[in-house]
Amino acid sequence: METRGWKSQLHPGSRQRVTSIFREGLNELEKIAQKYEEWVFTHATSQCDYIWTISRKMCTIKDPSRDMANYITLNQVGTTNEME
Fold first, then answer.
1. Most confident of 28-32, 57-61, 64-68, 80-84
2. Least confident stretch, 19-23, 60-64, 72-76
3. Quick one: how far is CA 61 from the chain centroid?
4. DSSP secondary-structure letter at 10?
5. How far is CA 46 from CA 9, 34, 51, 60, 66, in A?
6. DSSP string, 42-54
7. Cα 20 to Cα 14: distance, rounded to the nearest angstrom
8. Between residues 76 and 50, which one has the greater pLDDT?
9. Phi and psi at residue 4, in whole multiples of 5°?
10. Computed over its alpha carbons, how large is the radius of gyration of the chain?
11. How far, in Å, are 16, 32, 33, 47, 72 from residue 27 at the CA level?
């Protein structure tokens, strides 16, 4: 089976379009990150609060499944405590 066949059929500009879509997405993410940082800076009560809030968001972005696991665990604990 020839694996390079599809590559030769791909229009040369297609790869450039894909990378430009990624670039546009990265630009949008950068704008969102700047707005979020500005919001955190405005609302932080201390430098420690500012750093903690930004760090927490970075951990969530790096591993969203971990954050969801913590959320589920906390809800299970809350449910168990409510039943007692």
1. 28-32
2. 72-76
3. 4
4. S
5. 57, 19, 9, 21, 27
6. HH-SSHHHHHHHH
7. 10
8. 50
9. -90, -5
10. 22
11. 16, 9, 10, 27, 33
What distance, in Å, lies between the first and last C-alpha atoms of the chain? Answer: 63
Distance between CA atoms of 16 and 14, rounded to whole angstroms?
5
Tokens 């968001």 correspond to 57
- pLDDT reported for residue 2: 58
Take residue 6 and report the two structure tokens written for it: 């599809």
Q: Please determine, for residue 4, whether its predicted confidence score (pLDDT) is greater than 80.
A: no
Q: Rounded distance, CA 74 to CA 81, Å?
A: 10
Measured between alpha carbons, how far is 60 from 67 in angstroms, rounded to an integer?
A: 6
The residue behind tokens 């039943």 is 83
